[in-house]
């Protein structure tokens, strides 16, 4: 690790070394044209609406986010993320206004009526891989989603 | 994040995954990954910059044309300049309470202004509300001054309590600053320049000295704003 780098870059270097889940024979879906596609956002920023329960550490479930609201709370537990950017402009994590603009100009077909938030910085990924991930995928497919933009924090 | 991309793709959804940690993106190998060398917490790069955010999205959605897995690199880099916010502090009332407690009370109008302007997206809402923040700071100040951490009345798991305190201070800083803070600029201010930050650092050192488990004290400060 290079001590002359800013401390936040050193944290990123530490994260570089985390072991990911390895997917042999990973799937690849070819979408229909973007201008005909319904797009959703899935974020690992642990966003939630005020009346929804926040995320405990090790919580692998998801919350549904309503794109017509703007009261998104940042529930991520990591101390090593900047939260001021999101506090000023939620689009820097959850670019819902940008998607609405892209739908209005015809770049994308439509913005999904449902978006999902999970809590990142999980070390046990099995619950996501086998349970809440497939459940989230079904939720999006049931909402007619074709394309998903995944945003971390 | 990339695990979810693989799961969604296997279900028939096309995905694009943004990532700010290149090695992690490369090793987890989501079907389409866009490495954006931006500070953690700002995956679209620049708050309030619509044009820039659209450039990131345009690159991301262009990756749907790919016919095979791959990682691409967004050309712009946003570097952390290690800046520390310069914040004019509001006047503090005369009080015998700990200076960190008096400071926190004085910041309340600034906190309220930020929440009124932007909504309660950041701030104190995880374990406590803003009304409880000064009393929570008092518990850390007591530990910093030598009280036994288990008996100081910290109102929850210490690191979680600190997240609400940090959120309170950073929300206040947004109204006190004269510009949009760069990533971690307000965190460095909170951690290094405020009475509350000093009290929490002191409590961290005391908890370590008192033999608390590392997991209880090591996350009281933010590594990303360590210096």
Please give a quick description of this structure.
The complex is a heterodimer of chains A (153) and B (227). With 153 residues, chain A is of the alpha/beta class.
Shape by Cα distribution of chain B: elongated
Helix content of chain A: 25-40%
What is the helix/strand order of chain A?
HEEEEHHEEHE
Largest interface, C-beta closer than 8 angstroms, per-chain residues: A-B, 80 and 87 residues
Helical coverage of chain B, percent range: 40-55%
> Helix count of chain B?
10
Find the structural class of chain A using helix and strand composition. alpha/beta
Counting structural domains of chain B, the number is 2
Q: Report the span from N to C terminus of chain B.
A: 28 Å
Low-confidence residue ranges of chain A: none
Instruction: State the order of secondary-structure elements of chain B, H for helix, E for strand.
Output: HEHEHEHHHHHHH
Report the count of strand segments of chain B: 3
Overall radius of gyration of chain B: 21 Å
Low-confidence stretches of chain B: none
Number of domains of chain A: 1
Span between N and C termini of chain A? Answer: 22 Å
Overview of the molecule:
With 153 residues, chain A is α/β, with parallel strands linked by helices. Chain A has one domain (37-151). Chain A has helices at residues 7-16, 84-88, 96-104, 126-142, and strands at residues 38-43, 47-48, 63-65, 73-74, 110-111, 115-117, 147-151. In chain A, the strands form two sheets. In chain A, strands 1, 3, 5, 6 and 7 form a five-stranded mixed beta sheet that branches. A two-stranded antiparallel sheet of chain A has the order 2-4. Chain A starts with 6 loop residues before the first helix and ends with a strand. The model of chain A has no long low-confidence stretch (mean pLDDT 90). With 227 residues, chain B is mainly alpha-helical. Chain B has two domains: 2-73, no CATH class; 99-225, no CATH class. In chain B, 47% of the residues lie in helices and 6% in strands. Chain B is built from ten helices and three strands; from the N terminus they run αβαβαβααααααα. Chain B has helices at residues 2-10, 22-28, 50-62, 99-106, 108-118, 133-144, 158-176, 185-193, 195-209, 214-217; strands spanning 14-19, 32-35, 70-73. Chain B has a three-stranded parallel beta sheet with strand order 1-2-3, with helices on both faces. In chain B, helix 7 crosses helix 8 (185-193). Chain B is elongated, with a radius of gyration of 21 Å. The two termini of chain B are 28 Å apart. The interface between A and B is large, with 80 and 87 residues.
């Amino acid at each position: 690790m290079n001590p002359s780098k800013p401390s936040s870059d050193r944290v990123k270097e530490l994260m570089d070394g985390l072991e990911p889940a390895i997917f042999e024979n990973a799937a690849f879906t070819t979408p229909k044209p973007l201008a005909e596609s319904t797009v959703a956002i899935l974020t690992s920023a642990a966003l939630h609406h005020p009346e929804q329960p926040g995320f405990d550490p090790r919580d692998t479930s998801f919350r549904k986010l309503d794109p017509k609201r703007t009261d998104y709370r940042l529930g991520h537990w990591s101390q090593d993320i900047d939260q001021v950017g999101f506090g000023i402009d939620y689009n820097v994590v959850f670019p819902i206004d940008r998607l609405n603009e892209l739908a209005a100009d015809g770049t994308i077909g439509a913005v999904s009526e449902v978006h999902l938030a999970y809590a990142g910085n999980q070390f046990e990924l099995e619950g996501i891989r086998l349970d809440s991930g497939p459940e989230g995928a079904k939720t999006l497919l049931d909402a007619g989603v074709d394309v998903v933009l995944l945003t971390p924090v | 994040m990339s695990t979810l991309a693989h799961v969604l793709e296997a279900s028939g959804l096309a995905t694009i995954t943004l990532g700010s940690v290149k090695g992690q993106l490369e090793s987890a190998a989501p079907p389409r990954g866009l490495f954006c060398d931006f500070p953690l917490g700002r995956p679209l790069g620049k708050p309030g910059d619509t044009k820039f955010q659209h450039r990131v999205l345009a690159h991301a959605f262009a990756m749907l044309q790919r016919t095979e897995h791959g990682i691409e690199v967004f050309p712009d880099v946003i570097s952390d300049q290690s800046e520390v916010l310069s914040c004019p502090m509001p006047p503090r009332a005369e009080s015998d309470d700990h200076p960190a407690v008096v400071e926190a009370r004085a910041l309340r109008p600034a906190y309220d202004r930020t929440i009124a302007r932007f909504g309660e997206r950041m701030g104190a809402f995880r374990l406590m509300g803003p009304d409880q923040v000064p009393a929570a700071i008092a518990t850390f100040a007591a530990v910093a001054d030598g009280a036994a951490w288990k008996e100081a009345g910290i109102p929850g798991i210490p690191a979680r309590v600190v997240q609400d305190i940090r959120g309170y201070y950073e929300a206040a800083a947004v109204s006190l600053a004269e510009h949009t803070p760069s990533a971690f600029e307000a965190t460095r201010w909170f951690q290094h320049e405020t009475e509350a930050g000093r009290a929490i650092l002191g409590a961290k050192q005391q908890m370590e000295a008192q033999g608390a488990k590392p997991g209880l004290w090591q996350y009281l400060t933010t590594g990303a704003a360590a210096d």
